């Protein structure tokens, strides 16, 4: 292992050995000197033996570590990767994404350009549709698929602008100062769609005076699993977003639930029941208005109980 790599590329994976191979190969093909970065794969797969067997094919590769982490959860896996990292900067890449050869180099340039206050640097996420993109998926719904495009200028992001965790790097000292990624949030297995873990870290960094920087040349391609292109998945995703917001911002969620309750009281009980019955049966043509109502209904249930 190199004694002082500049960056640690951390790939967290869970039961995706087929797709993570392409992710790993894309990082092995980075165009910076091999001594300047390391690769850490944190395998959260349920079958430890299979994980170790898969990781064995990378034995002997310079500055490469493959570890099996038995405790489930994406946030935990990311924290494990950060603690194992030797570099001051950790760059996270999901197991269904691939990076171009200049990815790490461009992330490094972002830190250099904005100096020590640059705590987080990330870039665009371009979707790769394994199956055809749904015709009902409008641009205002793209965020639920981790699609990120903040334009062609390298700049500090505004408070309301965000980076996706599948293309997200951070200085380790800033991450540890923020308490790491919350293990109460983030994906855990195949059923949970909890999120907000990167958002909370970014908010903590900004509160301490750090900058979140966007580098358009540090893009990655993100493969969209066919299971995510259904209206049912998107409805689940929105319901879990409400749960994530309640867990991460309980006071704000209470205020939102009060507003939602007022809005829903304007409809009769029968009208609400008919709307949600039709929405749950619908398998296509989901809209942002539909998702907004699902979100607020879940907030009401969680925060008010009625």
Automatic annotation (TrEMBL):
Any one GO molecular function term: transferase activity
Origin: domain of life: Bacteria
Keyword vocabulary terms for this entry: Transferase
Domain Glycosyltransferase 2-like stretches: 8-120
Xref: Gene3D superfamilies: Spore Coat Polysaccharide Biosynthesis Protein SpsA, Chain A
Matches recorded under InterPro entries: Glyco_trans_2-like, Glycosyltransf_2, Nucleotide-diphossugar_trans
Pfam families in alphabetical order: Glycos_transf_2 (PF00535)
PANTHER family to which the protein is assigned, alphabetical: GLYCOSYLTRANSFERASE, GLYCOSYLTRANSFERASE 2-LIKE DOMAIN-CONTAINING PROTEIN
Listed name of the protein: GT2 family glycosyltransferase
Species whose genome carries this gene: Methylovirgula ligni
């Amino acid at each position: 292992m190199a004694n002082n790599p500049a960056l640690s590329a951390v790939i967290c994976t869970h039961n995706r050995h087929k797709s993570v191979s392409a992710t790993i190969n894309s990082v092995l093909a980075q165009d910076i000197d091999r001594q300047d970065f390391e690769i850490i794969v944190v395998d959260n797969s349920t079958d430890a033996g299979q994980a170790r067997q898969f990781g064995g094919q990378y034995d002997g590769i310079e500055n490469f570590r493959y570890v099996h982490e038995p405790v489930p959860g994406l946030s935990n896996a990311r924290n494990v990767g950060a603690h194992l990292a030797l570099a001051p900067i950790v760059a996270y890449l999901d197991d269904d994404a691939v990076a171009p050869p200049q990815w790490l180099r461009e992330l490094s340039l972002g830190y250099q350009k904005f100096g020590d206050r640059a705590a987080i640097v990330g870039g665009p996420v371009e979707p790769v549709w394994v199956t055809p993109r749904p015709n009902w998926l409008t641009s205002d719904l793209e965020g639920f698929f981790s699609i990120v495009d903040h334009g062609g200028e390298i700049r500090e992001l505004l408070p309301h602008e965000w980076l996706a965790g599948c293309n997200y790097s951070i200085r380790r000292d800033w991450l540890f100062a923020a308490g790491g990624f919350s293990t109460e949030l983030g994906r855990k297995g195949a059923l949970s769609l909890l999120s907000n873990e990167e958002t909370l870290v970014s908010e903590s960094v900004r509160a301490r005076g750090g900058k979140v920087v966007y580098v358009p040349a540090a893009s990655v391609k993100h493969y969209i699993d066919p299971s995510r292109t259904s209206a049912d998945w998107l409805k689940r995703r929105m319901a879990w977003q409400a749960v994530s917001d309640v867990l991460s911002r309980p006071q704000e969620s209470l205020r939102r639930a009060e507003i939602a309750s007022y809005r829903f009281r304007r409809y009769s009980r029968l009208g609400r029941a008919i709307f949600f019955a039709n929405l749950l049966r619908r398998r296509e043509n989901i809209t942002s208005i539909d998702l907004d109502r699902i979100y607020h209904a879940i907030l009401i249930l969680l925060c008010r109980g009625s």
